Amino acid sequence: MTTIPALEIIKPGIHSLIQDLGRFGYQHLGITPGGPADLHSYLWANKILSNNSNMASIEIHYGLMTLRVLTDTRIAICGAEFGVNINNRPALNWQTHNVKAGDIIQYGGAKTGKCGYLAILGGLQTEQIYHSRSTVIRDELSESTRSPLCKTQILPITRQSVKQLTAESPTCTRVPRHYIPNYSTTLILGLLPCYQWQQLTLQQQQQLLTTKYQISAQADRMGYRLTGEMIANLPTTLTSEGIALGSVQLPADGQPIILLQDRQTIGGYPKAGVISVLDCSKLSQRQQGSDITFKLDNPAVSRYKTQAFMHFFNL
Amino acid sequence: MRYHLDMIGYDAILIRFTDADNAQLLPVIYTLNRQLTNAADLDAVIIDVIPSYQTLLVSFNILTIEPHQLVTKIHAHIKQILMPQSQAPRYTLPVSAELLTLPVCYHKSLAPDLESLSLHASLPIDEIINIHSSTIYSCYAIGFMPNFAYLGDVDKRIQIPRHAKPQTQVAAGSVGIADNQTAIYPKASPGGWQIIGQSPAALHSLSVGCQVKFSQISLDEFNHYHQEADA
Q1: Is B100 exposed, middle or buried (0-12, 13-18, 19+ CB in 10 A)?
Q2: Three-class SS of residue A67?
Q3: Do A74 and A155 reside in the same domain of the chain?
Q4: A172 shares its domain with A198
Q5: Cβ neighbours of residue B71 under 8 Å, at least 6 residues apart?
Q6: Which residues of chain A approach chain B closer than 8 Å at the C-beta?
Q7: Does the beta-carbon distance from A29 to B146 stay under 8 Å?
Q8: How far apart are CA B157 and CA B159, in angstroms?
Q9: What is the distance between the alpha carbons of residues A277 and A271, in angstroms, rounded to a whole number?
Q10: What angle do CA A134, B43, B212 make, to 5 degrees?
Q11: Looking at the structure, do residues A78 and A194 belong to the same domain, yes or no?
């Protein structure tokens, strides 16, 4: 498939990465899945472009990225509110924009939320490794997936997608308003008790479910460390076992860590349970200092909600 | 051999074996991992299987199967391995063809902790090298970083705990010991294991259940490997 240069990075911003759905089927080799921190806004960005759900886009953490457009195409902006400008004119979030060669796309800092997605017609065609273009810095799998975007980097798209554009009508597509989340509400995470939940004392279980936690400064794509009243006398380290997305790990210091897309594949700390992929998405939009509480959730209901979500986005 | 299945959230099942030691479990976990990964009826169902010492974490696609159906299928696969109708149990480690021999240079310039291990173990360096390179190890788990394989069991005479404080940089290919485990660092990284040598075959891809042996090479041979790799 022939590609053409589509975007040039003028300013990479604080932390901008390439993400597709992630790398599946390689966790037995210690390779973490990666994938979008906020699956919800990532999928919307592809959906309003009529892209396949696995097409790679830019995941922008904290903003301050500037790009030059190198070919006429269409982009979608979704996720955190950054105040994006195209050629110094405000470009609305949660919708597509037709752009021309030479246009400058400029991101401000995050106003609400933490990360956003810039998707492009046909998806970015950066190099794949283990069937994914997702950047996982820690895994150092290949040159193109081991580091955040850098200045002067050129991102290609397919020639086919440019042809597709000329055949289509030039109107923009918006995400319907009632689907747009509010990232500044207080987040209550649904805990699905499993792993070592039964080995916790009733008091430890109650403490986890009643403590008001804050997101600490150690919160990234690997995991979110929370701070709050310490849970004492936790079970000690156990034999390493596989770690699921959203695992609520309880290390000896009694402060929970929620393990996310770039998590280690196995680990030996006790875990109280997991939160759903939809809650992981919401959590990834919360900034340092935000309040977090847990409530017990019903796995069957969570499964039903996730199934509906997957059907909606054709996963 | 006993086991139980636990739901992890709504899209993963943890298979946990109990009342057997790690060495006994390894062939079971190896065989079950292969079986679940290759089963035709689970092809569209299973996303990832993560084997470890006593567990396998199976994550699955919730659109293609109901959890209770997958639980039934997993029970059937385990039963087939542990209690086949006609023959002896069907769990075995891979045949000796899969024994990998990996070269290691134990020269002091590549082995910052070999001398302190010698003091700790009260054994001459040559004897430590001899013990480390004459044992056949099994890969019990992979994690920490891609292709970081936990190999065991290290001979009791040369076991040593991790550094109290991890080193900020361990070279790629470094061969370390931590208690009853040994491993090759597939890439440069911070790490706490005691480094007793370096392998030029840093990027060898290992999998749970495979058998590994180390063979000693000289510093000249080690440098030769690197020259070949650079050429």
Answers
A1: middle
A2: strand
A3: yes
A4: no
A5: B5, B13
A6: 24-31, 33, 138-141, 192, 194-195, 239-244, 246, 264-267, 273-277, 299-300, 302-303, 306-307, 310-311, 315
A7: yes
A8: 6
A9: 17
A10: 75
A11: no
ipTM above 0.85, yes or no: yes
- What tens digit of pLDDT does each residue of B165-186 get? 878 899 999 999 999 999 999 9
- Inter-chain touch B11–A141, beta carbons under 8 Å: no
A172 in the same domain as A136: yes
3-state secondary structure of A101: coil
Assess whether A9 and A119 both reside in one domain.
Answer: yes
Task: Tell me: do A172 and A193 sit in the same domain.
Answer: no
Per-residue pLDDT tens for A61-96?
Answer: 999 999 999 999 999 999 999 999 999 999 999 999
A20/A116 same-domain check: yes
Quickly list H helices, chain B. Answer: 22-38, 67-82, 114-121, 125-134, 219-230
Stated pTM of the model: 0.92
- Do residue A195 and residue A240 come from a single domain? yes
**Segments forming the whole domain that contains residue A87:** 3-179
Q: What single-letter amino acid sits at A72?
A: D
Dihedral Cα B69, B70, B73, B75, nearest 10 deg: -110
